Amino acid sequence: MSLSEQEVRHVAMLARLALTDDEVTNLRDDLNSILGHIDTIQQLDLASVLPTAHAIPVTNVTRADIVVPGLSHEMALMNAPAQQCGAFLIPQIAGGGDDE
Amino acid sequence: MSDLNLSAWNAADITDAITRKEFSAREVAQAALTRIDALEGAVHSLNQVTPELAYAVADRIDALVAAGEGLPPLAGVPAAFKDNMNLVGTRTTCSSRILANYESAYNCTAVARMVAAGVLPLGKCNMDEFAFGSSGETSATGPSKNPWDLGRIPGGSSAGSATAVAAGLATVTLGSDTGGSIRQPGAMTGTVALKPTYGRVSRYGCVAFASSLDQIGPFSRTVEDSARVLEAICGKDPMDATSVERPSESFISAAKEADVSGMRIGIVRDMMEMEGISPEVRQSVLDAALRFEAMGAIVGEVDLPTSQHGLAAYYIIAPAEASSNLARFDGIRYGHRVSDPTDTLDLYMRSRSEGFGTEAKRRIMLGTYALSAGYYDAYYGQAQKARTLIASEFTTAFQGFDVLLTPTSPQVAWKFGEKSDPLTMYLADIFTIPVNLAGNCGISVPCGFAEEDDVKLPIGLQIIGDYFAEAKVFRAAAAIERDLALDLRSPLVIG
């Protein structure tokens, strides 16, 4: 399989990456080279093989239902790029009352 | 005691000397920090140095000594942690611009267990950005340099964790290994480097790369120190549901016994015959096998044919999981945010683009593509099936053998900039990746040297064990370490 620049731009949107035109070209070439190797996996006959969900079988992991201190409000906000009134501040996502 | 030089000491000797009051833990901290001042500029092992944390623990140890109380098992041992492990009072940057100012809000369990065991936290180790790399060159803070030759890469991604030990800045360090990121730099720097079995050590507080493959493990100068650290950090952690409680066993005793008589050791023949493996590396591993035989081990050969597809499976699974894990870096709750976003989409897209380096973008793109609509079955589904085959191939091999031998890496340390093509770089991990996919354990232990340009460069032997068979791995690694008795002091340690 091989990717076109248009597909690279589509994947970049899915990944929420703003790429320059040069990055798109370079990534197209890099990804196609890597995919060329990865595609060798299609040679394996895996029709009857179950996929690995987990390396070590662990099931129904529980712990005692005891209240313990968690991350404090202050620590949770410690690295916030912007905050207001004890909350993470982001650009406006809905129309303001004065608009239109 | 400003002339105290502990750069070639092992952990047990340091703790014993503190117990006997030959020197204090504070003096150890001073000596280690003085050495960092002198050498960090040359090797760039550390993204952050934390004297206040080192002295705080040292004073706690010295108070115990003064009170005549028993010391914890790693008391006064100089240590450092890969910069993807959270430790309150330090930044956790993953050597990425996107986390350049990130302050740890909680403690990584493995790191907390090390500190509880008495180590002196000297700082946070440089790494490939988000552990994406095999040379240390993708770090946003600049690459760590190999103490054996400063013009060469130290391997990666746990580059700084390896160089800190090889340069004698720290006695032990922690790294993380997703496809070889502990073992491969261990081989490149002549250090002992362990990837424990998946689930042996809690991953809580270690920034996730590929959650089904990641495992934390130690770098050290000796196999016994590796065992000592594993005993301190292993075991169930309620904060990591994939961590496993196992019956208590002494890894230190296994390392001290160093006995391989009757042990069944398998050379992985088809890996030894792979293209691209250097003749010196190949010969050194075959010589090690002969030494094992001379020590009473039963040496045979085994093939792992599906493991040849490990690299392809890995470069689907690891980037897929990474693209998902790195979705959390969106400039909202932490990390880099553009100064002038027009809306949230613009904020996400430009913050991520400014924050992530080239290799991080490459892996995110590869993983996003592999998981995107229409490609899941062909890539991720197929890779997870290949993983099942690789794991069952190991299980079969371990019915006939106690441990398996391969080179850790096909080559010794290369020069900076030598591998510019991503795929060529990825091939450096061809022998270590299958172990992560299967989830069992492996150690890299120095087994010889190659000469390039009149420079002596270490070769690593990978000893692979079955699930939770670390004791056997330590026994074999300690036996070859004792038998070869290599002088593993790098030029920076000899001075």
Radius of gyration of chain B: 21 Å
Number-wise, the strands of chain B total 11
Strand order of the largest sheet of chain A: 1-2
What's the Cα radius of gyration of chain A?
A: 23 Å
Total beta-strand segments of chain A: 2
Order of helices and strands of chain B: HHEHEHEHEHEEHHEHHEHHHHEHHEEHH
Q: List low-confidence stretches of chain B.
A: none
Strand order, main sheet of chain B: write it out: 1-3-2-4-6-5-10-11-9-7-8
Q: What is the CATH class designation of the domain at 5-43 in chain A?
A: Mainly Alpha
In percent terms, what proportion of residues of chain B is strand? 5-15%
The CATH class of the largest domain in chain B turns out to be Alpha Beta
Mean pLDDT of chain B: 96
What's the multimeric state? heterodimer
Based on Cα principal axes, name the global outline of chain B: globular
Shape-level CATH architecture of the domain at 5-43 in chain A: Orthogonal Bundle
First-last Cα distance of chain A: 48 Å
In percent terms, what proportion of residues of chain A is strand?
under 5%
Structural class of chain B: alpha/beta
What's the helical proportion of residues of chain B? 40-55%
Q: How many helices of chain B does DSSP assign?
A: 18
